[in-house]
Specification:
154 residues; 5-stranded antiparallel β-sheet; alpha+beta
Length: 154
């Protein structure tokens, strides 16, 4: 069992700590959810619901915050919808990119995945340096290995 390094009052925001091996299993389950009638832990219909934004979101933040997001994350918040736990870029296409990131006191992690191409990029670091560096790394990996993940673009 992994010990959490964030206070327990953050639990409702996620506060999930797991090994890279377990995280990989979780990501793989989400990648193949539309091809398997029975997922490892949820039916494919439930997984599809997790990946589908309920409606197009109106991100009602002021310009200062939207600028901060773009600088920190590398892509504009307005380009994404939000499903249950996943940012969904290109939600109207059949090649949506699912993305989630998280941080704790000493670590940072991101995942980008495509259920269509069945590819994912999982990044984790023990440095808190801003999401832009992980985003740029994911973009480079996607390009170098031709993974066909339709990543969010600036």
């Amino acid at each position: 069992m992994l010990r959490k390094d964030d206070p327990h009052w953050l639990d409702p925001a996620g506060n999930v700590s797991l090994s890279i091996k377990d995280w990989a299993k979780f990501v793989i389950a989400h990648m193949v959810s539309d091809q398997a009638p029975q997922s490892i832990f949820l039916k494919s219909e439930a997984m599809q619901k997790l990946h589908t934004p309920p409606d197009h979101l109106d991100w009602s933040y002021d310009e200062e915050y939207l600028e901060f997001w773009n600088k920190e994350c590398g892509w504009p918040l307005q380009s994404a919808d939000y499903a249950l736990g996943w940012f969904v870029n290109n939600a109207v296409s059949d090649n949506a990119c699912l993305h989630h990131s998280g941080t704790s006191q000493g670590f940072q992690a991101e995942v980008y995945l495509s259920t269509k191409s069945r590819c994912a990029i999982v990044l984790a670091t023990n440095a808190r340096m801003g999401h832009i560096h992980l985003y740029r790394t994911a973009m480079a990996i996607n390009d170098i290995y031709a993974l066909n993940i339709d990543m969010p673009k600036n």
